[in-house]
Amino acid sequence: MNYSRRNIKKVLLIMPHIIELKGNTVNLPPPLGVAYLAAVLEQNGYTVKIVDLAAEDFHHRENIADNLFMIGLSYQETEKRIRDFEPDMVGVSCLISSQFKDMRKLCELVKKVDKNIVTIVGGGHPSALPAQSLQYEHIDFVSIGESECTLLGAIEALNSNGDFSHIDGFGYKHDGNISITPKTKFIENIDTIPFPARHLLPMETYFKTNIPQCGTSLKSPNTSIVTSRGCPARCIYCASSQFWGRKFRGRSPENVLQEMESLIRLYGVKELSIIDDNLTLDKERAMKLFQGMIDRRLNLVWNTPNGSAVWALDEELLSKMKEAGCYEVTFAVESGDQEVLTKIIKKPLRLSSVEKLVAHAKGLGLLVKAFFMMGFPGETREQMKKTIDFAKRLRFDAVGIFIATPLPGTELYKICKESECLTRDFDFEKINFAEGSIRIPNLAPEELERMRSRAILQLNIRLLLRNPFRFYKKYSNLMFTNPKGIFEFLYFLIKKIVHRGRSL
Hints:
By secondary structure, the chain is of the alpha/beta class.
């Protein structure tokens, strides 16, 4: 394709289909990443449209493999949307590797409509593997990591001299060769970014479906909000810092409060999912934000479904969070064995602090959820059992357990490649957090899956037996809005427990 001077005026941003393991839980939060990009483009005078394929037809499901299904608008209808809008550029997001094949298909559809439409892709997978992504003929450009400035820079270059060499975090093709400019710059003051362009999203669909990121909610309408970017931790499994950088950048409390007030005013929002990785890392900022929510009497209830950085929490913060409307906090613990946390995962967390914080949170009346992972290279069966025992002892209200999964660009993937411990059928496009892809000595992947599934059932059913009222508070809305999803997930777990046989 000739990248000489173009005239980019109309940009279509596509959020791809949901690709999920059969039986796994499915959520439908608004895609804030593309909404932020759309807001920046609109601010700079471009005409923008967002198509969130899953939200456009959430009940349309297609089987795409023996154990995978796809949710969202059909390819035929998607092609029609592209033709109707007549874009000059189409950007396709690819947050996770399982969407990569779908992303390629969507770019192919774009070129089918008009080969002169520019295609640019971004998100977790293409950011980690930009050169691999550009090997596909239907993909013109890759935006690496945080993309507001990158996308604007690409359009400006296309509309002028076609020189992309100066764009930070960018992949492109030149004279038959692939060129990659590494990501080195991030937006220092993220208050300068406009609020997400939610007016371009089918907000009523998210409200009506009512399956936010954590799968459960207390009130409706609810929506997501993010107040910070970047994480200084070096956990080996996490790709977030590769995308957003290692420097923490928080929005000012005033900026966040203004967005909260606009969500109440425009959409009548009553609940928020604050999806930061590090909401409380800057304690002074966090305390001002929570106090602002109290002083302005926003009367919002909220939770932290992404998992709070427990190493950045204390009792004073938890108390202020409760006062500001928080009803559920999720602790990203990962392991119940200190040696695994410190030496394998490299997470800056002491388990002794977790126990104290859980006790304090429960004393405040907060629902307390926890995330754990198991199956890391070097982790033993006994250490995994210690994780399960730790979760039992602390009596969490809900527990999510995930199997360690080597995402592209992470240290975990590098370790697995160097030690040659990936399973023979390992494929980025098929990975998920419910099936083993790492060979652990004396523990086959299917055994790990059974251990995980059994623990999830045991740990989460304990709340029903221990405190039916808290169980109802946690799951009542989900039971009414998505009973089928609950039964599918239970069936999935039971099937994993009784299943036998899978080749290494």
